[in-house]
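Look at a sample.

——
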Amino acid sequence: MHSSRLVVILAACGAMLGLGLAALALAFGAGSSGAQQGTMHRCPPPGGWSIAVWDGANGSDVSQALSSCGTAVLAAYDLDPGTQTWSRWFVGQPGLSSLTTLDTFQGILALGGGQPPGTLTPTATPNATVTPTATPVATSTSTATATKTPSPTPPSLVGACGSCALTDCNCSDFDTQSEAQTCLNADSSDPFGLDADDDGEACESLP
């Protein structure tokens, strides 16, 4: 019982759609006598549906007729008012298509594609993003400077140079050149700088 009602409802819907397509085709034909022949009118928008009308010759190839649209058409359907059967057309699928030709002012239900026929949409390739790598900055580490502990003055140097050997001896600490020479001879490294010209003679200005 329910299946019979469903069949009746589908048949009624098909009949109303067929009548609507026929009425649209007749109305279009009445107002487009001056239109250019061989053009599909009311083509579907990209991704949308419309009832497109062909104003070309009878028996025109569906693929050629739909190629006159400004947008790509993916599929088209036609309802035969007499038999209440649908014929279909799919782009690039002739084996699955039963709708092959169109007559003058024939209206079909068409589905628009995403872009015009033959138009290639370039795909943007994202550029590789270079992520800067932080370079560690060398941090100077302060190194503690070892404090030099003065070595004790050898007794022999104190005996040869006098009490100035405990601090720093200068030529003014000696009365004669021979006293300064004795201090220099006690340590040939000349820790007090008594031999200014490094000729082995200490405090040559002294008498």
